[in-house]
Amino acid sequence: MTSKSYTKIFKQLKAKPVKLAKFKKHNQPKKKGFGSGSRKCKRCGRYGAHISKYKLNLCRQCFREIAVKIGFRRYY
Known about the structure:
The protein is mainly alpha-helical.
């Protein structure tokens, strides 16, 4: 279930508070605690190919674009 459909159903159930409470309890999107879905690039927002070493928090594509500006000489 995507967040978009979640919010759509949420709007429909506002008139029925008991059903809304039950829906929130069982169908609310969960916060990702670990894995590739929990980390995203701070520059572009991608989830895959994440570099977190040295607290960079960048995807590999963004890292290649700005590596020289940051101060890396070899980045391959």
